[in-house]
Amino acid sequence: MTSTVAKKSTIIPPGIYCPVISLYKPTPRQEIDYDASYKFFSYLIRSGVDGLVLAGTTAEAVLLSAEERKELVKIARKAAVDLGRPDFPVVAGISGQSTNESIRLAEDALSAGASFGLLLPPSYWAKAVTKDAMLGFYRDVADATTLPIVIYSFPAMCNGIDMNSDTLSELAQHPNIVGVKLTCGNAGKVTRLTQEYTHEQFAVYAGSSDWLIPCLAGGGGGCVTGIANVFPKCVAKLYSSWNQGKTKEAKELQGLVAQAEKACKEGIAATKFATAHFAGPMAGITDLKAFWPRKPYAPCGEEKSAWVVKVMQHLVEVEQSFPDAV
């Protein structure tokens, strides 16, 4: 490691983070179902994930109100406390198109019990997002809150705005910017950043589990992956097997997980259907409409649903072979 920046005062723990889907009531307005959310948060924690991410892309964050985001953080924190895990990491999406909005969302998340804030770059006027604007945005938000900030790099959701490793490295030197989630899928960023920084200085995570081993082998700290909604134990086991030196077992499981994760690449509707089909009954949530996307977006059709089951079915027995963590 070449950087001499100090370790962050609050370090995001390594591991598997689940970007939790949002669950709705089967009503015309599709209000958030907080009771079902509590059940699902509890299920994920018991299954062995290392942290929950709320109000991210998989949660349909742009369709959630500020009050809904805040309440979901409170519910997640309650689920963790009730399971005897009061310090369990809860990462809250705080992405806004303005600095002011992002600061307000960070304040809400902190007051509700969030541990960290996940922040996309501004992207509404993409041509106006210069490097200086990007750096100023993150630094201003990080200066204005005590909530530790995790950068969220996802060009496909941000009008193509990408942050190269040099830009990320500049932001890594801020004392309240603690890591990055790379949904850009660029493994080169992992190795460049981990060559400069230790996990305690600036943590680096893959944005999906189909390249978890490459990320870990390159010095990364884990991943934030939508498939953890569906098969949380499998992804947690993949991570632990690699860290325990069980390379052959980890590689085999990596392949199985990657094949299943194809379904999550098809979008929110496919991920939510998969969660309803495979994990819903295990979490005690049986109403399929709870897992529908929020309107105007539609749930999976029959053909796509059948394909999702087909490409994920091989993980069912594997998932069931692992015990609860809590």
From TrEMBL:
Membership in a protein family: Belongs to the DapA family.
Keywords, alphabetical: Lyase
Gene3D superfamilies: Aldolase class I (3.20.20.70)
Pfam families per record: DHDPS
Coiled coil regions in record: none
Keyword match NAD: no
Protein name in UniProt: Dihydrodipicolinate synthase
Residues the record marks as active site: 152 (proton donor/acceptor), 181 (schiff-base intermediate with substrate)
Amino-acid positions noted as binding pyruvate in the UniProt annotation, renumbered to this chain: 58, 224
Molecular function GO labels: 4-hydroxy-tetrahydrodipicolinate synthase activity
Claim: Secreted is one of the keywords in the record: no
Cited InterPro entries: Aldolase_TIM, DapA-like
